[in-house]
């Protein structure tokens, strides 16, 4: 009997044993998932197990063949997994660099604003008090909101408990609302400085600015910490799902809180800013037209004066240059003599 006949006989024996034991489908699936380096890899694997196994040891033949297929598939999938791991690591590194750069720039950029106002006495004016408070809000956004957001973006999941989740959401709402309200306060300050400059020293005082800044922070805290930590901001279904999945942090709000929060935090401040800056724009156009008319009036006045007295300067010059012919002095030069 030749070697090919022995191989054919043992292959038939293997197929019968696989069909009897019910392992033909899993092995076929494993062989289909494995990416073979050549068209004869599967046949070579079977032939290797056939040659190394006796004809009577059918169970050993099946076990060794199955183990070889599983090992081949696992090794190949492991190689692919390593490739994906490197890609994931590269993506994580890029995210860390970008998010860290944004956070550091936000912190140090606003710190420079605060330090500049504190160090230079000329910058300690009422308007800059709003800017310093706004810079503090932006720093707190970078520290308490953007850092947790970066952890979720890098890890792909929430890494903390539910209390920290509520703290993160509260800080996000608080500092974002405070930032927008500070911008509306600055627009109020600019409105009085440009539209009503005579009333500005009486309206925008240090005491009033302090009251406005305090009101901004208190109002922002009222619509953030209290509704979120008491659970008034979300639905009952979400609270039940949250108890089942404490490792998740999802921001889901109900309709009443969404309306109140968006109105106080965004729509009212933005509407006030638009109205204030529109009035400032109208005043700027008005002042520009007034300056243009003043310049035109000055030009027309000079032109009319020149037209009514065209020879004043020429006559004065001629009277100085004319000398009598009978008066001659050696030290006086008269161009008409």
UniProtKB/TrEMBL annotation:
Q: Which GO terms describe its molecular function?
A: octopamine receptor activity
- What range(s) does the G-protein coupled receptors family 1 profile domain occupy? 109-337
Q: Which Pfam families match?
A: 7tm_1 (PF00001)
| Family recorded in the similarity comment | Belongs to the G-protein coupled receptor 1 family.
Q: By its UniProt entry, which PROSITE patterns does this protein fall under?
A: G_PROTEIN_RECEP_F1_1, G_PROTEIN_RECEP_F1_2
Give me the Gene Ontology terms describing cellular component.
Answer: plasma membrane
What name does the UniProt record give this protein? G-protein coupled receptors family 1 profile domain-containing protein
Residues that span the membrane, as ranges: 89-117, 129-155, 167-188, 209-235, 255-278
Q: Where in the cell is it found?
A: Cell membrane
Coarse class of the primary localization is: membrane
An example GO biological process term is: positive regulation of MAPK cascade
> Could you tell me the keywords of this UniProt record?
Cell membrane, G-protein coupled receptor, Membrane, Receptor, Transducer, Transmembrane, Transmembrane helix
Recorded topology in the membrane: Multi-pass membrane protein
């Amino acid at each position: 009997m030749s070697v090919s006949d022995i191989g054919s006989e043992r292959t038939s024996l293997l197929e019968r044993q696989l069909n009897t034991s019910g392992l033909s489908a899993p092995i076929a699936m494993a062989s289909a998932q494995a990416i073979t380096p050549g068209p004869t890899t599967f046949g070579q694997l079977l032939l290797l197990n056939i040659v190394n196994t006796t004809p009577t040891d059918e169970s050993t033949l099946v076990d060794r063949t199955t183990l070889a297929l599983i090992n081949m598939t696992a090794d190949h999938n492991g190689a692919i997994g390593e490739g994906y791991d490197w890609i994931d690591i590269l993506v994580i590194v890029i995210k860390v660099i970008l998010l860290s750069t944004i956070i550091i720039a936000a912190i140090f950029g606003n710190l420079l604003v605060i330090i500049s106002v504190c160090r230079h006495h000329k910058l300690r004016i009422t308007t800059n008090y709003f800017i310093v408070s706004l810079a503090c809000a932006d720093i707190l956004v970078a520290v308490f909101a953007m850092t947790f957001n970066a952890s979720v973006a890098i890890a792909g999941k929430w890494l903390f408990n539910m209390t920290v989740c509520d703290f993160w959401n509260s800080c996000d709402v608080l500092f974002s609302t405070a930032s927008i309200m500070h911008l509306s306060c600055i627009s109020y300050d600019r409105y009085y400085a440009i539209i009503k400059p005579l009333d500005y020293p009486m309206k925008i005082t240090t005491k009033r600015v302090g009251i406005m800044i305090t009101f901004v922070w208190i109002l922002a805290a009222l619509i953030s910490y209290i509704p979120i930590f008491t659970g008034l901001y979300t639905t009952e279904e979400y609270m039940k799902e949250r108890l089942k999945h404490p490792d998740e942090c999802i921001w889901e709000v109900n309709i009443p809180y969404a309306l109140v929060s968006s109105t106080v935090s965004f729509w009212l401040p933005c509407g006030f800013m638009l109205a204030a800056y529109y009035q400032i724009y109208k005043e700027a156009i008005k002042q520009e037209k007034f300056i243009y008319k003043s310049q035109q009036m000055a030009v027309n006045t000079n032109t009319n004066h020149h037209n009514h007295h065209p020879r004043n300067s020429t006559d004065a010059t001629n009277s100085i240059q004319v000398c009598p012919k009978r008066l001659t002095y050696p030290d006086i030069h008269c161009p008409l003599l």
